[in-house]
Specification:
By secondary structure, the protein is α+β, with helices and mostly antiparallel strands. The chain has three domains: about 5-195, no CATH class; about 200-350, no CATH class; about 355-435, no CATH class. The protein contains 17 helices and 13 strands. It has helices spanning about 5-15, 55-60, 70-75, 145-160, 195-205, 210-225, 235-255, 305-325, 330-335, 335-355, 365-375, 380-385, 400-405, 410-425, 430-435, 450-460, 465-475; strands spanning about 25, 40, 50-55, 85-90, 90-95, 100, 110-115, 120-125, 140, 165-175, 180-190, 260, 280. The strands form four sheets. Strands 1, 3, 7, 8, 9, 10 and 11 form a seven-stranded antiparallel beta sheet that branches. It has a two-stranded antiparallel sheet with strand order 2-4. It has a two-stranded antiparallel sheet with strand order 5-6. Helix 8 (about 305-325) packs antiparallel against helix 9 (about 330-335). The protein starts with 5 loop residues before the first helix and ends in a 30-residue tail after the last helix.
């Protein structure tokens, strides 16, 4: 059974939205999968709702500039006035490598699919209350995690990383108990689709239903991977396309020093988007074994392990698609391009971060040796690469601005000599390379201490730091001298920050 017509019901429930607000599609991808895929439900009211932050840039992209400033927007995005076609989807998945069975949108409410300037986009409220999939949770999100997701979603977009987006955060004095009593918030998330590996796992394992699985896969192919429809094995082609997107995403994460923290299969996007910002973090001191999630006691999701974990998750997706693919050898062959795609994308990313425009066989060793030296000396990841723009190949060059990042000066000098020779081999011009590197290596990333400072002020009702930091992160490659402190070394107290799955 398909969901009711969204346009008519939205008008009944929400009233006539301004013409520059959401224009809801009537044949939404997610809701069109049938009642076994979702549950229709209403949000739980959020008392004394107020704006915490809004993304004007995203609103402009969607064509909702004026509407986002309206009372109607606040009412809709707080969950206080939603269409009766709002729904939560069911999915399953592996959590920390262990099969967890049925999961689902435990605190996410899909308002529907909207027609925007950026094309069809699903609009979802995170923290809008209980759903049938909340398990033992309360269906709410707290202010701190909502602010972190808002800031990082939009920061990743500015960095050029495929991601779900965050349109707004709405706060409330409603108490929510986690380790302590906190206040509730709702973050509005936007994406072409929130479809996860876990959606396919659900219909393959928890509630095996080959008809439902095929329907989901066919709809995914038709909407997002139409080029795969003409393949001899369309479902294997779907798997390969997802694998290649995931490989490229992993290379971008690694190159930025981004740690996701909870790479469960239910947190993996079929579209190759960064999804579900929880205990994420950007590397400060470079430690390949860094674990950003305090709840990850085994270190499964450490920075260096992320590419292999993604490949493991893709095998879980392949297993879910086996009823449709039919041949394990075909499925494994569809996954194989992940390795080459990731290796190529990763090497290209490291070359770009060092300003190497040509491909030479010795480049991998040069890159690996730099990373080993950075790891040994725990140099700051973002600052080290940003300072590479100031590296000079001149015979009498003083490269102390980079050299000072390292404790092992002689080891760095030896590496720097090799680097300089490599740059000269392709007639690299320092000034041209500097401009390129400053467009590749960000000066500003969302470090945990920056987010924590903004959250601390927000808890007092002062959202100005959230809004200021959001604006800084929209221009991560610009110098922004007025915000120089945001690009500096983290303070000593930042080492004590712990981010967990609790939100």
């Amino acid at each position: 059974m398909n969901a009711p017509d969204k346009s008519a019901l939205l008008a009944q429930a929400v009233g006539q939205e301004p013409t520059n607000g959401p224009s809801w599609c009537t044949d939404g991808f997610t809701s069109g999968q049938g009642q076994g895929f979702f549950t229709l439900l209403a949000a739980q009211p959020l008392p004394a709702a107020h704006w915490v932050a809004r993304s004007d840039a995203l609103a402009t992209e969607l064509g909702w500039d004026d509407w986002l400033q309206s009372d109607s927007a606040l009412s809709l995005l707080s969950g206080n006035r939603v269409p009766p076609t709002a729904l939560a989807t069911v999915y399953s998945g592996h959590q920390f490598g262990v099969w967890a069975g049925q999961l689902g949108d435990g605190r996410a409410l899909l308002l529907g699919e909207a027609q925007t300037r950026a094309g069809r986009q699903e609009v979802q409220l995170k923290g809008a209350g209980l759903t049938p999939y909340s398990r033992m949770g309360d269906g709410r999100a707290v202010l701190r995690s909502s602010i972190r997701e808002f800031l990082c979603s939009e920061a990743m977009q500015a960095l050029g990383v495929p991601t779900t987006r965050a349109l707004a955060v709405v706060g409330s004095p409603l108490p929510v108990r986690r380790e302590t009593v906190e206040t509730a918030a709702v973050v509005t998330r936007v994406a072409p689709s929130f479809l996860r590996f876990g959606h396919f796992e659900h219909f393959a394992h928890t509630e095996p239903d080959e008809t439902a699985l095929r329907r989901l896969a066919d709809a995914t192919l038709a909407r997002f991977f139409p080029q795969a429809l003409d393949a001899a094995q369309p479902y294997a082609a779907l798997l390969q396309a997802v694998a290649e997107r995931t490989a490229r995403l992993m290379a971008q994460w690694q190159a930025l020093g981004f740690c996701h923290g909870v790479m469960n299969t239910d947190n993996m996007s079929v579209l190759g988007l960064t999804i579900d910002y929880g205990p994420f973090g950007f590397l400060d001191a470079f430690d390949p074994g860094h674990i950003c999630n305090h709840s990850d006691h085994q270190g499964r999701y450490a920075w260096a392990k992320q590419p292999n974990v993604a490949f493991w998750n893709l095998h879980a997706l392949a297993q879910a698609l086996m009823p449709l693919i039919g041949d394990s050898d075909v499925a494994l062959a569809a996954l194989e391009p992940y390795k080459a795609t990731y290796a190529s994308a990763m090497l290209d990313a490291w070359r770009a971060k060092l300003g190497l425009t040509q491909s030479l066989e010795a480049d991998q060793a040069l890159i690996d040796d730099l990373l080993r030296l950075m790891a040994a000396d725990r140099t700051d990841f973002s600052i080290t690469f940003r300072r590479m723009a100031q590296f000079s190949t001149a015979a009498d060059a003083n490269n102390d601005v980079v050299r000072d990042m390292f404790i092992q000066r002689e080891a760095f000098d030896a590496w720097a000599a090799r680097y300089s020779t490599r740059l000269l081999a392709e007639a690299s011009v320092d000034s041209d390379r500097a401009g390129h590197l400053n467009r590749v290596n960000p000066k500003f990333v969302l470090r945990n201490h920056l987010a924590e400072t903004a959250i601390d002020r927000a808890r007092t009702g002062d959202f100005s730091e959230v809004q200021r930091l959001h604006q800084v992160l929209q221009r991560p490659f610009d110098e922004q001298p007025e915000h120089e402190a945001d690009a500096g070394f983290p303070p000593a107290w930042a080492r004590q920050l712990e981010i967990s799955c609790s939100s």
